[in-house]
Amino acid sequence: MKKIVSLLIVIALFCSCSDYQKALKNEDVAAKFEIATKMYEAGKYNKAIRLFEQLAPTYRGKPQAEKLFYMFSQSYYKTKQYYLAGYQFESFVSGYPRSEKVQEAAFLGAYSYSKLAPVYSLDQTDTVKALDKLQAFIDNYPNSEYIAQANEAVKVLSGKLEKKAYENAKGYNTISDYKSALIAFDNFIADYPGTPFKEDALFYKYDSAYQLAINSIPQKMEERLNVAKVAYNNLLKFKSDTKYKKQADEMNARVETDLQKFTK
């Protein structure tokens, strides 16, 4: 019995492949559409894509076009061709705004772009683009069943931008460009007030102000020491038992000692 079942499976696969090869060369678009649909339903998305690519130009405006372009979009998505999936889903939404699949297509179109977003350390152009598209989806379909997924994707993408901004600011501190570090940390804290990196940002802002102050020329030292003192107080105001407290206290002792020179 097992041999018979195996044989039937082999025969079915052979016939399927044979039908597919014929469909690629077949000028009968209806027959091609039927095979493309079978490939799609069987999960053979790459084969379906080749047929959909042939069918797309001739099916626009036809009754079955909506189904074809939905399957076409999904096939790209299922094969992780996210740029093409995003484009096709957006075209679907534009072409079939009354479709029962429009919300799903709108979400997957935006979500496809989120899949293109790189790790935080790389250029974040695609991340910003994905955020714009997801926000547009949220604005257009506030009651959609996909809102929770869209919000979670926005959270992940925003986290990448947040991490990127923090690491950029810290990078200035690392290379001893303390003036740029102070500006970058100010911008970061203003842009991301609820960031989980706030304690670290406040400390490295203080460290930048401190390093800039103690290495200043005498004419600028007093002013910069006072800036460092404010940064120290802001760190402790945010978290009195900060993990940086020992180091920060030692630095502040130096600041206080140096400031006394200007009061004599």
From TrEMBL:
Query: This chain belongs to which protein, by name?
Result: Outer membrane protein assembly factor BamD
Cite the Gene3D superfamilies for this sequence.
Tetratricopeptide repeat domain
UniProt xrefs under PROSITE patterns: PROKAR_LIPOPROTEIN
The record ties this protein, via SUPFAM superfamilies, to: TPR-like
What NCBIfam families does the annotation carry?
OM_YfiO
Keyword entries, A-Z: Cell outer membrane, Membrane, Signal
Q: Which domain of life is it from?
A: Bacteria
Q: Enumerate the spans annotated as Outer membrane lipoprotein BamD-like domain.
A: 30-218
Q: Quote the InterPro entries the UniProt record gives.
A: BamD, BamD-like, TPR-like_helical_dom_sf
